[in-house]
Amino acid sequence: MKAIWNGQIIAESDDTIIIENNHYFPKESVKATYLSDSQTHSTCPWKGLASYYSLTVDGKTNADAAWYYPDPKPAASEIKDRVAFWKGVQVTH
């Protein structure tokens, strides 16, 4: 799977985990040069507290376009150290 935004591959892996129709990529498959930490957080009742990254590619920023669970609840332990995308990021084969 590939995560693409603004013409660049942000992440690429054959080892994604699908939860609620979102592909969670291993963190090491995500190109950190495109990520910047966000102060945004949200809470999922069964996954826990999510943190976000903004993406910056070729001078354009997509705020809070990636999220991850630094310390997921036990029911979602399989997505620890994984990143998912939304907000116009295309996830495709």
Task: Tell me the overall shape.
Answer: globular
Calculate the mean pLDDT score and round it. Answer: 98
Q: CATH homologous superfamily?
A: Domain of unknown function (DUF427)
Q: Separation of termini?
A: 5 Å
Number of contiguous helices: 0
Low-confidence stretches: none
Task: Quickly count the domains.
Answer: 1
Oligomer: single chain
Strand content is: over 45%
Which key features would you list for this structure?
93 residues, mainly beta, Metal Binding Protein, Guanine Nucleotide Exchange Factor, Chain A, three-stranded antiparallel beta sheet, 9 strands, 0% helix, DUF427_sf, DUF427 domain-containing protein, DUF427
How does this structure look, described?
- It comes from Spirosoma utsteinense.
- This is DUF427 domain-containing protein.
- It is globular and about 35 Å long.
- Helix content is 0%, strand content 57%.
- It is built from no helices and nine strands.
- The chain has one domain (2-92): Domain of unknown function (DUF427) (Metal Binding Protein, Guanine Nucleotide Exchange Factor, Chain A, Beta Complex).
Task: Write the SSE topology.
Layout (H helix, E strand, L loop, with lengths): L1 E4 L2 E5 L4 E3 L2 E5 L8 E10 L3 E10 L2 E9 L13 E4 L4 E3 L1
Antiparallel strand pairs: 1-2, 1-9, 3-4, 4-8, 5-6, 6-7, 7-8
